[in-house]
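quick one
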Amino acid sequence: MLKNLHCKELSLNIETPQVMGILNVTPDSFSDGGNFSQIDAALKQVDQMISYGAAIIDIGGESTRPGAKDVTEQDELDRVIPILKAIKERFNVVVSVDTSKAAVMSEAINCGAGMINDVRALQNEGCLQAVAQHQNVAICLMHMQGLPRTMQHDPQYDNLIVDISTFFQQRISDCKKAGIDASRLILDPGFGFGKSLEQNYRLLAHMAKFKSLDLPILAGLSRKSMIGKLLNREVDERLAGSLATAIIAVQQGAKIIRVHDVKETVDALKILQAIEKNK
Ligand code: 9MG
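structure w/ 9-methylguanine:
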């Protein structure tokens, strides 16, 4: 497997697990095109995440929570692009843009995004073509069954791991046909995206099976309802559960962990690395 992932002018060493910090761009935060005080607050959060050890900052203008409403292309551009430009002007960090819209992908890449994080795995119209034109940008292909509005209504699989692997193989093949080199791809099994509580934990237990696809794996578990439901914890009480799942995900082979709590996750992963080094 690759040791370095090219993200535009920056390169990510994924021999050791890297942390992707989630920047909270709530629906209203940047809806006015990004006024100064809102951008300033976001930049402070970015500065902090980088100082704690985040290698990637993930920003997105569409909520993908179960039941979330659709967002227009213009709204997404207005939310994401001003903050993306402001980050790239000030920080030497990989910025990932979480979007499923071809126009947002193209604009984000032109404005400095080094990674596209698509929960719909480039299946929307024009997305394969949009990213194929930029050979040095990394792409995260996430698995989702159904769509955010309805995906948690009784998800069904013949065989969870085999079905997700088959989906990945199909998307990798479609990417190659569109001229996207496999060395640019990251795979994400999509915790919470069309999976029941039991399916999410089965996925976490068997994630190492995706290693056979020979591409880096990204896992996003931070504060998710699979933690809240199991522990009976509200969103702001899920740190311990999030750290436990981050550690297990890395033990199962994940190379990038997408989190809200960068400082605590980096610390937890350092403990794991010390164990690995001293085995
Ligand atoms: C945007 N987003 C929300 N959850 C996510 C997850 O688990 N993975 C990725 N790649 N993106 C996510």
